[in-house]
């Protein structure tokens, strides 16, 4: 039987706002059923539907309705912020279905914003080095990827970009390549209308986004394959 997603509950965002206000374990326990019905179960349904839809579209991304979700409880052991609960729910779908993989789809539904992303986030040093080398040594391929993304209405973000060229790339002078090698992440984002999270069509919207972001996934996967082959 095909998975179904009917949207997040109408009380999803109000619940997150109330949880962020109370930040109280007793309050959360008293209202846990609301969390499950409005947020946790719908996000699980969305993961199931996207896993099926991504497989049909050959996007190479999958998830598990439970394991792919991040916990609403925050890990405060090493944080100055001791609030016990997050103000959002989120999940990752990846090539192997785990959160440890890179080249992932990420969805975030929260108080301040709702968005999706396709990301190579904080690649391990060998992969990041290989990506930077590919930008310079195979510049035409990198530029074709960037152009394809732009045609699809997407652009790689500059979040946490280094201010100076990393070691080994000081010689790169072409502006687009010089900026790209300073990236610490390679991410494209898609804003989600908070009113739209309640609609089943959110799944269609996210499949369309990942389809448009596929050039970034393919570019990174080709480089990652070379790194794995050499290791």
Helix segment tally: 7
List SSEs in N-to-C order: HHHEEEHHHEH
Shape, principal axes of CA atoms? globular
The overall pLDDT, averaged over residues, is 96
* pLDDT < 50 runs, ≥5 residues: none
**Per DSSP, what share of the residues sits in E-state strands of 2 or more residues?**
5-15%
The strand order across the widest sheet is 1-2-3-4
Account of the protein in words:
- This protein is of the alpha+beta class and 231 residues long.
- The chain has helices spanning 12-22, 25-30, 32-56, 125-137, 139-151, 175-180, 202-230; strands spanning 88-93, 104-110, 114-120, 186-191.
- The protein contains seven helices and four strands.
- The protein has a four-stranded antiparallel sheet with strand order 1-2-3-4.
- Strand 2 (104-110) and strand 3 (114-120) form a beta hairpin.
- The protein is globular.
Characteristic key phrases:
alpha+beta, 231 residues, four-stranded antiparallel β-sheet
Question: How are the SSEs placed, and which strands pair?
Answer:
Layout: H1 12-22, H2 25-30, H3 32-56, E1 88-93, E2 104-110, E3 114-120, H4 125-137, H5 139-151, H6 175-180, E4 186-191, H7 202-230
Antiparallel strand pairs: 1-2, 2-3, 3-4
Helix pairs in contact: 3-7, 4-5, 4-7, 5-7
